[in-house]
Write a structure and sequence with these properties.
Helix content: under 10%
Order of helices and strands: EEEEEEEEEEEEEEEE
Structural class: mainly beta
Number of strands: 16
Distance between the termini: 36 Å
Strand order of the largest sheet: 1-3-4-2
């Protein structure tokens, strides 16, 4: 779990197998692979532990897998082979699908209180109250965050119309984009 980021009111760890007799809470997205889910033990500070079985999404070589702290100290972000889940650790029935797929990278922006998810061409950002913004296609392919400043994310990716890499700028707080070059 990324500990360089936000405060949390729980602990969590990936486990290799289900303990005998345990019944996991199942998380599935349409189209996700149900075989060999990512198993995670989650222990809220003031509630009982539970185990989540998170369906995997995409080719693991080009997608992300892991656990991330979020700006909301009672939520965890779980990414299982590109499939993203934003889960309330106190009530696992309260969860949502991260609207980016396959998730290829996750970036914690602690000072801005944002957790940013990216796929091949789009970004989505979560703040303390959940999904804050998401973009349409920014580039044609190979989206990457290059840097951030006090008000923007600077990203780059493939511009198919001009057969080159190009940069776009996304406002951290509104998600407004300048310089998008993706399909329209």
């Amino acid at each position: 779990m990324s500990r360089e980021a936000f405060a949390n009111a729980y602990s969590a760890e990936v486990i290799e197998s289900m303990p005998s007799g345990a019944l996991p809470v199942k998380f599935e997205l349409s189209g996700a692979r149900r075989a060999h889910p990512l198993l995670v033990t989650i222990t809220p500070l003031d509630d009982p532990s539970w185990i989540g079985a998170f369906a995997r999404g995409y080719d693991e070589k080009s997608s992300e897998t892991g656990l991330w702290l979020t700006p909301d100290d009672a939520r965890i972000a779980v990414v299982a082979a590109g499939a993203g889940y934003y889960v309330d650790v106190r009530d696992p029935a309260e969860w949502e699908e991260v609207p980016i797929f396959p998730i290829r990278f996750v970036r914690s922006l602690v000072e801005e209180e944002l957790l940013v998810f990216g796929d091949f061409s789009r970004l989505a950002a979560y703040g303390r109250k959940g999904l804050k913004w998401q973009t349409a296609d920014l580039v044609w392919d190979d989206l990457a965050i290059v840097s951030t400043d006090e008000s923007s994310i600077i990203a780059s990716g493939y511009d198919a119309e001009h057969d080159r890499q190009a940069e776009v700028r996304i406002d951290l707080f509104s998600g407004k984009v300048s310089g998008a070059i993706g399909p329209r």
